[in-house]
Design goal:
It is found in: Cell membrane. Its main location: membrane. It comes from Streptomyces javensis. It is a multi-pass membrane protein. There is one protein chain. This protein is mainly α. The protein is 74% helix and 0% strand. Helix 5 runs antiparallel to helix 14 and helix 12 runs antiparallel to helix 15.
Length: 286
Amino acid sequence: MTSDVPALAALRRSPVAARRLLVFTCFLVTAVTLTPIVMMVLVAFQSDAESMAARPSFWPGSWHPENIGRAFDLVPLGRYLLNTVFFAGGTALLETVTAALAAYAFARLRFRGRSVLFGVYLTTLMIPTQVTLIPQFILVAKLHGVDTWPGMILPHAFTALGVFLLRQFFLGVPRDYEEAARLDGANRWQTFIRVIVPLAVPAIATLAVFKFISQWNNLLWPLVISNSDSTRTAAVGLQVFQSTNGTQWNLLLMAAAITTVPLIVLFFLTQRWFVKGITMSGLGGR
C-alpha cells in the first residue's frame, strides 16, 4: 500500500504522465470493447469450412462478401429488421410521451400523496422483468394480444426509469419560465408543450435513444409474445436463424453484424443530443 503512494504523488506532480496514463487506459478499454465486434465481422466474411474448422482462424483466408446475400436468403432478415424498427420505435415513442407527462406531473403539480405515490412507483424498478413476465403474458393473452403489435408494444410503453430521469430534469427548470407563460395567458397544457418540452429536448432525446436501443436488443418479451415472421424481431430471428441452419457461424455472425449497423448509424446521427442529454439530465449526476 505504501509503495502506491509515491506513484500517485508522482502522477499528481506530472500532468503529462497522468495524461498518458489516461490515454493508455482509454485505449485499453476501447480495444477490449471492440475486439468481439472485430472478431464478429471477420468471421462473418469467412467461408463455411473456415468458420466450422476445429481450430478456427479469425482472419479469413479468403473474403466472402456473398455471405451478406446468403444471410438475407436463408431467413427473412429484412422483415425482421423492419419489425424491430417498428417495435423499438413505437415503444420508444410511447414511453417518451407517457414519461414526459408523468414526470411533469410529479415535478410541478401539487396533489395529496405525490411523494408517496412517486416512491411506490420507483419501487417497481426493483422488480425483475422475469417476475412479471407470466402475469403480463396472461393479461395480454386474455386481451387477444398474442402475436400482435399492440400486445408487443403497449406492455413496455410505461416504465418508472423514464419518469424518474425526466422528473429530475424538470425539477431543474426554473419556475420563472412557467410563471411568465401563465402571465401571458397560457394554461397548464400550453405551458408544458410550448415551454417545458422545448427546454427538455436533450433529455427527452436521450431517453428515446436509450429506450430504442434497449428494445432493439430485447429478446425475452418478443420471444414469448411473437409466433410468426409478421411480428418476429431481429433478436428472435437470430435464434431461429441458428436453429434453422445448424449454426453456420459465418452466416449467423453476418446476420448479427447486419442487425448492429442500424444502432451504429443511430448513434452517429444522435450523438450531439445524446451527449448533451447525459450532461444535462440525471444520468450525468446532476
